């Protein structure tokens, strides 16, 4: 089965960008008939009209709108592959995933050093839960991601990089929490399902025959801790996040069992690491 060639995608994208065949041909240093023929061949290959033709004006047809983002991604990947193969230095866009906690408390100095060493790299940082980040690495949407235990990463490579101490936090008015029953009828404040820390606290509550009366889901630790401080419920957070947000005095911290308290953050990636991931690993190893 033949595949779409990159030259055809480049011609298609240029016709879109230039708004017509004449200007696209000038930009590509091709004759107009060649550009027209290549577009027609691409349409025949796909069995879809990519453009609506009104005289000399071309506008994208629905199929063209669908193809354009794929063309952008494929051509960008081809550029990145060529750049990496021609140089030992990472270049281009580096799509990196991270937990919200890791991004807020650990990555600033690391990414600052990375930027100074490799100014030709643009880091695109995406945050999410461990489950969501692992799925995106598997789908090649991210080159690597920082995730926390527990996580299922069959087929992925993993490197332990940060040690975290997890604590249970409540409003300061809550005197003591030593067992799941102390949280009866309380509200769990957490990230969405897929968060490793949420999984740990729900597991602990379940082993004690308890469950949170209800849960509130947030997408930032700042909002979570503010709600906890206001007396809305309880949460599980890394101590490093409390310190980074200067929130240690706003909530009461309660020690968790040893098996939960100590947690490791891992960097995960798929297959042979890209040049950018390899250089990031070198920085992590040097720390």
Q: What do these coordinates show?
A:
It is a single chain. The strands form three sheets. Strands 3, 4, 5, 6, 9, 10 and 11 form a seven-stranded mixed β-sheet that branches. A two-stranded antiparallel sheet has the order 1-2. By secondary structure, the chain is α/β, with parallel strands linked by helices. The chain is 45% helix and 22% strand. It folds into three domains: 6-75, Winged helix-like DNA-binding domain superfamily/Winged helix DNA-binding domain (Arc Repressor Mutant, subunit A, Orthogonal Bundle); 92-157 and 266-286, D-Maltodextrin-Binding Protein, domain 2; 163-263, Periplasmic binding protein-like II (D-Maltodextrin-Binding Protein, domain 2). It contains twelve helices and eleven strands. The longest helix is centred in the N-terminal third of the chain and has 25 residues, at 62-86. α1 crosses α4. β7, α8 and β8 (214-217) form a beta-alpha-beta unit. The model has no long low-confidence stretch (mean pLDDT 87).
Supply the key terms:
single chain; 287 residues; two-stranded antiparallel sheet; 3 domains; D-Maltodextrin-Binding Protein, domain 2; 7-stranded mixed β-sheet; Arc Repressor Mutant, subunit A; alpha/beta
């Amino acid at each position: 089965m033949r595949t779409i060639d990159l030259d055809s995608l480049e011609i298609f994208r240029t016709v879109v960008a230039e708004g017509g065949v004449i200007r696209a041909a000038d930009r590509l240093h091709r004759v107009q008939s060649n550009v027209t023929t290549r577009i027609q061949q691409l349409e025949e290959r796909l069995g879809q009209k990519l453009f609506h033709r009104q005289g000399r004006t071309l506008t994208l047809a629905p199929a063209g709108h669908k193809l354009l983002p794929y063309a952008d991604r494929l051509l960008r990947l081809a550029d990145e592959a060529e750049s990496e193969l021609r140089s030992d230095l990472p270049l281009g866009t580096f799509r990196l995933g991270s937990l919200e906690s890791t991004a807020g408390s650990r990555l600033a100095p690391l990414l600052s050093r990375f930027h100074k060493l490799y100014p030709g790299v643009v880091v695109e940082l995406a945050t999410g839960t461990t489950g969501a980040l692992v799925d995106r690495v598997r789908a090649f949407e991210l080159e690597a991601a920082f995730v926390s235990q527990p996580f299922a990463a069959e087929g992925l490579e993993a490197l332990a990089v940060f040690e975290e101490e997890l604590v249970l936090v409540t409003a300061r008015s809550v005197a003591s929490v030593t067992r799941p029953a102390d949280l009866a009828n309380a509200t769990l404040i957490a990230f969405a399902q897929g968060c490793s820390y949420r999984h740990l606290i729900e597991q602990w509550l379940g082993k004690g025959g308890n469950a949170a009366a209800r849960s509130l889901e947030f997408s930032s630790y700042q909002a979570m801790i503010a709600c906890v401080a206001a007396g809305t419920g309880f949460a599980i957070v890394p101590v490093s996040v409390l310190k980074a947000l200067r929130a240690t005095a706003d909530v009461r911290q309660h020690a968790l069992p040893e098996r939960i308290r100590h947690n490791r953050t891992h960097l995960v990636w798929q297959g042979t690491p890209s040049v950018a991931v390899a250089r990031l690993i070198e920085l992590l190893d040097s720390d």
